[in-house]
Design a protein that fits this description.
With about 300 residues, this protein is mostly beta strands. It has one domain: Methylamine Dehydrogenase, Chain H, CATH 2.130.10. The protein is built from no helices and 25 strands. It has a 5-stranded mixed beta sheet, with no helix packed on it. A 4-stranded antiparallel beta sheet has the order 3-2-1-25, with no helix packed on it. It is globular. The relative contact order is 0.15. The N terminus is likely disordered.
Length: about 300
């Protein structure tokens, strides 16, 4: 075992008073090291965690993390619960140039839990029932997925329509989300001339499902503004929000989440905390669209590093 990976019972930076997610940075091409940034203390803490060593770590559903070793071919994948330290081995999988995102249909303790591995710029995903010996590959053009109230929802990359993903044994089914008027749930994007680049994620927020859309400036890696949409999965309808009230969103392509600011006075409500390819951590005010740079945070993050908000 390499130096820095030795077991230490205090290596996980847990704090009994911590009620917010730290930003986890998996550093280097092979995720050799990991740094935690605590927004309440405005400090970075580097930790050598044996379970994380040389693994890309990202958040998935129900408090679990995904650990993938990109040095191995095929890739070694597992689920890890930072609360109980329980680890569940997943089938190995073919490596891709981009890193996988992981989604769970139900908690891993449920006998009918399915695992999905997904790369947003590819036209396929891999899925298996927890306990299966291999992943099944399905050709499908999706742009983003999420697990919400023990169901998987996704946005189709070409049509922009939203679907619910269901499973029957080894088959994956897509069900279009149609309202009582026969209209398919569809949220239009800005035209390419108005949005040279954008990114988005589906986020559970205090019992609601939100689509958070990040829009960038022309000829720049800087974020211009965000748009937020609330999706009613029962009525199959959506509305754009100008405020999220006493809530905060933590945005990342490898693990977004949302929290209420009640009893969390150090968090800025009606805001979005995000870190993008400029390597810094920002706060976006939803009401006035202003951005505030948190200066002494992630300035040393490299271009091959990835970031995820996680709960410990």
């Amino acid at each position: 075992m390499k130096k820095g990976c030795e077991y230490s019972p205090s290596c996980l930076p847990k704090d009994s008073d911590q009620t917010h997610p730290p930003l986890l940075v998996s550093q280097g091409k092979n995720s050799q090291g990991h740094t935690f940034y605590d927004i309440s203390k405005n400090e970075s803490i580097k930790r050598d965690i044996p379970e994380f060593c040389n693994k890309h770590v990202s958040a998935t559903s129900y408090g679990w993390l995904t650990l993938i070793d990109y040095r191995k071919k095929p890739l070694d994948c597992c689920l890890f619960n930072p609360e109980s330290n329980e680890m569940i081995q997943l089938p190995s999988i073919k490596p891709e140039r981009e890193k996988y995102q992981c989604f769970l249909s139900k908690p891993p303790t449920h006998p009918d839990c399915y695992v999905l591995l997904f790369v947003s710029c590819r036209n396929f995903l891999h899925f298996c029932r927890l306990g299966d010996e291999k992943f099944i590959k399905r050709q499908i053009k999706l742009h983003t997925l999420t697990s919400f109230k023990e169901k998987i929802y996704a946005r189709m990359s070409e049509s922009g329509n939203f679907v619910e993903i269901d499973f029957v044994d080894q088959h994956l089914l897509l069900k279009e989300m149609v309202n009582d008027s026969g209209q398919i749930l569809h949220i239009p994007w800005p035209s390419p001339s108005n949005a040279p680049w954008h990114a988005h994620d589906l986020v559970e927020s205090c019992g609601e499902l939100l689509l958070v859309h990040m829009i960038g400036y022309h000829h720049s890696a800087q974020v211009a503004y965000f748009r937020i949409f609330r999706i009613n999965t029962v009525e199959r309808e959506w509305e754009e929000l100008s405020s999220i009230g006493d809530r905060t969103i933590f945005f990342s392509l490898f693990g977004s989440m949302s929290l209420s600011c009640t009893n969390r006075s150090y968090l800025k409500k009606n805001s979005i905390y995000y870190s993008w390819i400029d390597r810094n951590l920002w706060i976006y005010d939803i009401e006035d669209r202003s951005k505030t740079l948190i200066k002494s945070t992630t300035s040393r993050i490299g271009m091959t590093d990835s970031k995820s908000w996680i709960m410990l």
